[in-house]
Structures are given as structure tokens and as C-alpha cells.
Amino acid sequence: MVTYIDATSAPLKNTGVIRLYDADAFDGMRKACQLTARCLDALYPLVKPGVATDVIDRFVFEFGMDHGALPATLNYRGYTKSSCTSINHVVCHGIPNDKPLRDGDVVNIDVTFILDGWHGDSSRMYPVGEVKRAAERLLEVTHECLMRGIAAVRPGARTGAIGEAIQTYAEAERCSVVRDFCGHGVGRLFHDAPNILHYGRANEGPEMKEGMIFTIEPMINLGRPHVKVLADGWTAVTRDRSLSAQYEHTVGVTADGCEIFTLSPGGLDRPGLPA
Ligand code: MF3
Ligand code: CO
Ligand code: CO
Question: Would you tell me which CATH number, out of the four given (3.90.226.10, 3.40.50.300, 3.40.710.10, 3.90.230.10), belongs to the domain 17-260?
Fold first, then answer.
């Protein structure tokens, strides 16, 4: 049994109940998400060969501080960084460190800012220098997966429609969908109900209703879908060490579809644009 509740009257913990948000909440989410999108826009000039992911992480921290926002990952379940930086075969939750990025790498940078209590969660892929055609293609496929998932969002459909759209496209492109991580409800909580699976069938999952807010964040591999988590307890990698990519948006369900809160103000949130 799925239950829905007016978000203004629900306790602030994930009990599996799906919150429905009002116009004020949409406004708060829009602001938090736009700050995250602006930060992701500002990162492009920084992501170059020789730059360590720690430098990127510091930039994210300071960008947040400068704009009255806190990175949600900081001290989240023992995580100590302001971002996740997932390079090449790292699927997600890569921990920024002092190792320099190398020409040909592709890195996902995932940022969540908390602004006025609202969480804006988004990630994009950044090519480092000149990348191989196969990597470029994976970025294009993964971004298209995200946008097809988003296109399936509307009241009355089930969340499984998102997963079906993503899986169908990814597999038609001879790529695979990671099963071990999913999108999530988001708002005043970082990770809330419902889970948004990036695979499945349109008749599965809870019905989407106007006022729901969640992320869609497909992780797509060139090889097999299986992942393992390294000894650091966070870094998830492909078991076959094949290349993995991810894009993430936070969306709110509207009367006739959805609003993408984390769209880039500079129009930079798709692969292959900035130099
Ligand atoms: N931002 C990630 C997401 O999209 C979560 C990162 S949690 C962390 O849900 F602790 F690994 F940072
Ligand atoms: Co997320
Ligand atoms: Co994220």
C-alpha cells in the first residue's frame, strides 16, 4: 500500500510515505536546485588534465559557502567531502582525492546543496581533455536515458514508466543499466521515498502525483551492469572495469508533466558542449 501525505504536515524522516509538495516548496526547491546547477556550470573551466578532484571539491564547498548553502554530503553517513567525483569505471560515490585528472578521463561530478533547508541534487559528466569516441557515445546515451526518463514523468503514470524508458533505450544502444543504485524522493530530506528505479516496467512502482519531487539519476555502463563497492565503503565500480556514466536531475511533478529544477541556466547540462 502506497500512501501519500501533504509534505507540510509530515514528520521529517523517511517512513516510506510519499510527500506531496505545495507551490512554496516548489519555489524553495527551484532555488536550491538552481544554485546546484550554477555550481555545476561553473566547474567546466576547472575540469582539466592535472587538476585533482580535491580541488574541484574545495571549489564546490566554497561555492556553497559563498551562496549561503551547505553541501548535503558533508558528514552525511560518515562521508567527509562536498561532492562525489566518479572517474571512468567508477559508477558513483567516488571520493575526491589528491590524484590529478588525466587526459581522456570522464568524470561525474555530483553536487547537492542545502539552501534554506531544501536539497538541490544534480550531477553531470565532464570530459577531461580529449576523450575517446566510445566515452563520448556513452555520455550521449546516458544523457538521453535521463531525458527519456524525465519525459515519462506525469501524474497518473507509475514510476516504472521512468525505468522502462531508460532501460529500453540503454539496452537498444547495447549499454547496461546499473541496478544497485536508484533515484530518490528529495526535498527537506536528502534521500526520501520513493525509490526511482532506472529499469523495469511501466506498470510497476507507485503512481506519480502532482507535487511529488524526486531525482532521476541513471548510471549506464558500456559493459555489464554489475558493481562492487571498494574497501573505503563508498566508491562503487563496475565489476568488469568497463566505463560508466551518470547524469542526474531533480524534478517536480506538475499537472501535465514535470519541471526540471536543476536545468543549467547556461544551457550546459548536456554532453559535448563546453570545450
Ligand atoms: N548525491 C548522491 C545522490 O545523487 C548521493 C551522495 S551521498 C554521498 O543521491 F554520501 F555519497 F555523498
Ligand atoms: Co540523488
Ligand atoms: Co546526486
Answer: 3.90.230.10
Ligand 1 atom showing the smallest separation from residue 72 Cα: 12
> Taking the CB of residue 3, how many other CB atoms lie within 10 A of it?
10
Report strand pairing: 4-6 vs 18-20. Answer: parallel
List all residues 6 or more positions away from 23 whose beta carbon is below 8 Å from its beta carbon: none
pTM exceeds cut of 0.85? yes
Residue 256: all three cell numbers together: 501535465
Mean local confidence (pLDDT), 15-44? 98
Its sign, for the CA torsion 197, 237, 233, 70, is: negative
pLDDT per position as a tens digit, 61-81: 999 999 999 999 999 999 999
Distance CA 168, CA 165 (A): 5
Give, as residue ranges, everything with CB less than 5 Å from ion ligand 3: 110, 121, 123, 248
Beta bridge partners of 253: 258
Q: Are 91 and 242 in contact (CB under 8 A)?
A: no
